Amino acid sequence: MKREFPIPQGTTLRCKGWRQEALLRLLENVLAVGEDPDNLIVYAAMGRAARDWPSHDAMVRALLTLEDDQTLIVQSGKPIGVLQTHDRAPIVIMANCNMVGQWARAENFYRWEKENLICWGGLTAGDWQYIGSQGVIQGTYEIFSRIAERHFDGDLRGRFILTAGMGGMGGAQPLAGRLANAAILTVEINPERIEKRMKAGYLECRADNLDHALTLIRDAQARRAPISVGLLGNAADVFSEILARGIVPDIVTDQTSAHDLVYGYVPSGYTLAQVAELRKTDPDTLMRESRASIVRHVTAMLGFQDKGAVVFDNGNLIRTHAKEGGVERAFDIPVFTEAFLRPLFARGIGPFRWIALSGDPDDIRKIDDFLLRRFADNQIVANWIRLAREYVPFEGLPARIGWLGHGERTELALEVNRMVRDGELSAPIAFTRDHLDAGAMAHPNIMTENMRDGSDAIADWPLLNAMLNCASSADLVAIHSGGGGYSGYMTSAGVTVVADGTPQADDRLRLSMTNDTASGVLRYADAGYEEALDEVGLKGIGRIDTASTRQP
Ligand code: NAD
Fold first, then answer.
1. Whose alpha carbon is nearest atom 23 of ligand 1?
2. % of residues, the chain, pLDDT over 90
3. Is 4 within a domain?
4. Whole-number average pLDDT of the chain
5. In the predicted model, what is the mean pLDDT of residues 386-400?
6. Does residue 332 lie in a domain region?
7. Which of 86, 257, 347, 426 could form an SS bridge with 264, CB 3.0 to 4.6 Å?
8. Regarding beta strands 205-207 and 47-48, do their DSSP bridges make them parallel or antiparallel, or are they unpaired?
9. SS3 category, 520
10. 85 and 159 part of one domain
11. How confident is the model at residue 546 (pLDDT cuts 50, 70, 90)?
């Protein structure tokens, strides 16, 4: 039977309450907007919503019958039980893809995945929080804005951004670059992905070949007009060719799924069909070929950097694989978090999201209106909401991302809960955030690279964050670790809370939203970041200062 993936909507409950209904709708939504829903794949090469279809169907059945005082337990995308808890406990808890340290390697992951013992939930796929390419768009936009401030007098008009990858997350790049007023060229090997981004309104035009692409970019630069151009091709080849022609973009990055050498990155010289075949017959060769391509790809990025371009890693492990392939200087390229966003994370400001469970875009617009009134003086929030409401199309359930910080998230969530209670919104709203948030991720090559105190690879922080969110009555709490190429590289935590208008939701939102960001500020304060220490004082966050007991 061919499955359909409709976007859920309306106000009719199928579950025993809105908390359960919300999580069911979020599960349906990640498949509705996912990259390959027939195979349960949502984004990031292999990030899945459930382990397999029987597990998915059993999860749906469990959500349909779950009581308010029960908790559904999910292990790597498979439901393993429903247990009696209490009505202030999470209704779903998850542990996805966590492998014991010495065993947490890609080859073990692929073996256990084949044996159906494990599956990778990405960050927001397995815990049903993905909202389409919008999920990272503000982050990408903020990076471009920081680069503009630091290197280009605050203005990217007439500037050329070169990047690659138009998948679930990378697909946000063309629109983010355009919103930052740049001329952005994004190289993508899969024509379907280019079509999908054009249809979704994230990409403006598709070039016929490299010459055409460069002409479109040059013309836009000359007019100081923003443009987003997609080019079908392999990034390793196209980046090298542009460098060889002596053309130096102003900004260079990459968001191909380079983290996964088998199921993600497509090596130069191979068609998509050949890669699909090799995945089945000879993954070792594919891994070698992908790494060899990444070596060329990153060598070209370094070439651009040497010629003065602002080059950064956009969170896909491309430098790591290049270094393993012999590119000694791969880590001369900085990672986006450390280079541009860490001062925000240190204050607990990060990619917060809210999703209209009704499917009614008006609900999001009303929340936009509130934010524009309440945070009129907050330049990051006000500027973004204005841009987003005008230019960012909804995919699936209407949703918004907004980089809000400690206290701000709680305030928004409580106001929205009131709006639900007073009938100003047509149905409840789910609040969630990316795992790539202040207190929720340890990833020594992405989120926590070069932490001031050297604590890059300490995974206690996301584990504490998840436990704290359980103790704070969140509705869903998840602990994820890396799978595929990310195996052994990351541990992170996810949280979702539903504003259903009830006084109980007020309590859940107040505790969970406040403590979630507090854990982030405490994490950065512990590492010695002044912004976090300042935030602790400003917002009265309950920190215990044990600095005097540290060994020198
Ligand atoms: P995806 O698997 O949905 O898409 C990756 C895209 O890259 C695909 O469309 C694929 O065809 C293309 N591609 C692969 N090899 C290529 C090549 N050699 N040349 C050109 N195109 C190629 O993945 P995604 O969800 O878009 O994520 C992309 C990467 O970004 C992943 O590594 C992911 O983990 C990472 N990521 C970063 C952040 C962040 O905050 N910066 C957030 C989420 C994901």
1. 44
2. 97
3. no
4. 97
5. 96
6. yes
7. 257
8. unpaired
9. helix
10. no
11. confident
